[in-house]
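Morning F.,

Quick status update on the modeling queue. The single chain you submitted on Monday has been processed. Sequence for confirmation:
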Amino acid sequence: MTKQGSARPPAPQRTPVTIVTGYLGSGKTTLLNRALKAPELAGTLVVINEFGEIALDHQLAAASDDTVVVLENGCLCCTVRSDLVGTLNALYHDRQAGRVRPFDNVVIETSGAADPGPVLQAFLSEPTLDGLYRVAGLVAVVDAANALETWERHDEAVRQVALADTVLISKLDLVEDASREAMLR
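Structure tokens below.
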């Protein structure tokens, strides 16, 4: 109760965020395109991090009635404090003011070269994000045909899997039975 005797207004419900990561070419955008067709994800805001001179992933994502936001200026792990925090904060307030389509959850597709650790850390340590959003999970997509070589050459790919709550293995149809069995263990 406040001094005037009225109850405090309830705290705003934190919007769930799912982070989708995976090394370059693993199938993140394909996964998103398939998932966004599900009626349960009709109210999803998608944030796609582009890395490189020409932004392409957002053109591959099937947006239909969903909102797609593109962060084009580099690896999300390097710009997480400014771009991601600012974008999600602005989108929350734009949703409240009716300037963007309502959304019930957020999916962040990281660049294939991104280390998802700093993204997770932003949600844990940034008061603005912590009050408005909550991490629902981190999904790593692994390319079965190239995983072992990728893990040997790129530490980011190892961290993507190590931090994941869920690992989805793509391209199993492209590997031989013995490799497929080893990958599934």
